[in-house]
Amino acid sequence: SSPPAQEAIRIIDRLREAGFTAYLAGGSVRDALLGKSPKDYDVATDATPDAIRGVFGKKRTLAFGASFGVVGVLPDRRDSVTQPPRADKVEPTEVATFRSDGVYLDGRRPDSVHFGSAEADALRRDFTINGLFFDPVNSEIIDYVCGREDLQRSLLRTIGDARQRFAEDKLRMLRAVRFATTIGFQIAPETANAIAEKASEIEVVSGERIGVEMRRCMASEHVLSGLDYLTDLQLMRYVLPELAQMDHAVIHQLFLHRRQREFPSALALLLLASPSANADLRAITERWKLSNEEVRIVTAALRGAPKLAIAHQVAWSKIQPILIDRDVRYVLDVACDLAVAEGLGDEGLQRVKAALELPSDVLDPPPLLNGSDLARLKIPAGPVYAKILNRLRQRQLDGELSTREQAIDEVRTTKW
Ligand code: ATP
Ligand code: MG
Question: Which residues does the UniProt record annotate as the domain Poly A polymerase head (predicted)?
Answer without folding.
Answer: 22-157
